[in-house]
Amino acid sequence: MGELENTDFLSMDRRTFLKVVGAMGASAFLGLHRSEISKALELSKTRVIWIHGAECTGCSESVLNGRDPDIFQAIQKLSVDIAYHEMLIQQQGIFVDGELASTSELNSEIMLDEAIEEGGYILVVEGAIANGPDGTGKYCMYGERTFKELFTKAASNATFVLAIGMCATYGGINSANSEIVDLMDFRGVAFLRRDPSKGMLTELGIDRPVINIAGCPSNPDWVLLTLAAVILGKIDINDPDPILDEFKRPLVFFPENVTLHWNCPRRGYYDIGQFDTEFSGDACLWKLGCKGPYTHSDCALRKWNGSVNMCTQAGSPCISCCEPGFFDNSTPFYKNVQTVAPSNSETDSSFPSNENNEDTITPAAIGLGATAGATVIGSAAYAARRIVQKDDNKKEMDQ
Ligand code: SF4
Ligand code: SF4
């Protein structure tokens, strides 16, 4: 961290900047560079309009629960003007003489329309967009109009769109297989599951740059650091693709060639073939259905809840909540995919076949031979150290 304190982030090229903010948490970045950020933003105020479609508001909750900085500190430091956010802005719809008030001070729908008409804002979309039934969008209403109508207007006037969470990015649980999924016809902003041709922007013929922050929910760091990079001009919003993967996720948080499994705190057990078959153990969770080996996210390094913990560390198999195609791709959540094929044939090619799944395990782990490579030895030592530490802790507690 010492070296980073002395870096001049304003003179960094885009790639270096993204690497640095990727390595630091939002807190460290915003804290360390407070004065430079203030200088860079002296004359600017970035307007953000944040709209909610079909979702659980979990991504807003996640960002609001972010700590050091919390959302309000981040807004201050980045000089952001939240022109509209369903949960942060008090809803107003006051009736005067039996009629709905028609000024933006008293009616938040009018306030939203006025903010959209001003244009020049970042549009944050949380939640899927209903296209059904029959292209009307009426399965998701927003006051008197459809969310599809609101999204169309808001996206048309935005400078760029930040889709956060699986519902807004790829459809999420709204697009999971069911008897009514075709009727509801929920879409992500730029994709439906893994298909860009069925994203809502394509459906509407609107051409806007998009960044997808995956996750169910999204990590507050992923959202705040991406916003910071955009606001500080470190992402070219007219051409963000060089820093994104094929699903428009920032590579710095969702690396193409590294999976969560690489840095998992339980990785040592995997390499020596120690697998939990019941919950509450200490070993690798692969036989309980862990999808870490197929998940391109930095959760194991960045962690959650103020960098305290993450799924596999807490004993829950990774359900691959940030891969396009979630949730069908990941179900059944808690069964070893080696013996259970993916449920959605459309996504078979993206998910490991049974054969590939076995390939990810070292020969030592599945008992096919004794490959005493350095990795295996190192991992075994790591696992052994954890066992010893656990025993020591237990002894201390017993005393
Ligand atoms: S399979 Fe899951 S629990 Fe096991 S090491 Fe990989 S990510 Fe961790
Ligand atoms: S560890 Fe897996 S399930 Fe947990 S948040 Fe990360 S990607 Fe999602």
From TrEMBL:
SUPFAM superfamilies: HydA/Nqo6-like. [4Fe-4S] cluster 1 binds at residues 56, 59, 167, 216. [4Fe-4S] cluster 2 binds at residues 261, 264, 284, 290. PROSITE patterns: TAT. GO terms for cellular component: [Ni-Fe] hydrogenase complex; ferredoxin hydrogenase complex; membrane. Residues 259-334 form the Cytochrome-c3 hydrogenase C-terminal domain. One of its GO terms (biological process) is anaerobic respiration. GO terms for molecular function: 3 iron, 4 sulfur cluster binding; 4 iron, 4 sulfur cluster binding; electron transfer activity; ferredoxin hydrogenase activity; metal ion binding. Gene3D superfamilies: Cytochrome-c3 hydrogenase, C-terminal domain, NADH:ubiquinone oxidoreductase-like, 20kDa subunit. Its cofactor is [4Fe-4S] cluster; [3Fe-4S] cluster. It is found in: Cell envelope. InterPro entries: Cytochrome-c3_hydrogenase_C, NADH_UbQ_OxRdtase-like_20kDa, NiFe-Hase_small_C_sf, NiFe_Hase_small_N_sf, NiFe_hydrogenase_ssu, TAT_signal, TAT_signal_bac_arc. [3Fe-4S] cluster binds at residues 299, 318, 321. Its main location: other. Keywords: 3Fe-4S, 4Fe-4S, Iron, Iron-sulfur, Metal-binding, Oxidoreductase, Signal. Belongs to the [NiFe]/[NiFeSe] hydrogenase small subunit family. This is Hydrogenase small subunit. The lineage of its organism: Archaea, Methanobacteriati, Methanobacteriota, Stenosarchaea group, Methanomicrobia.
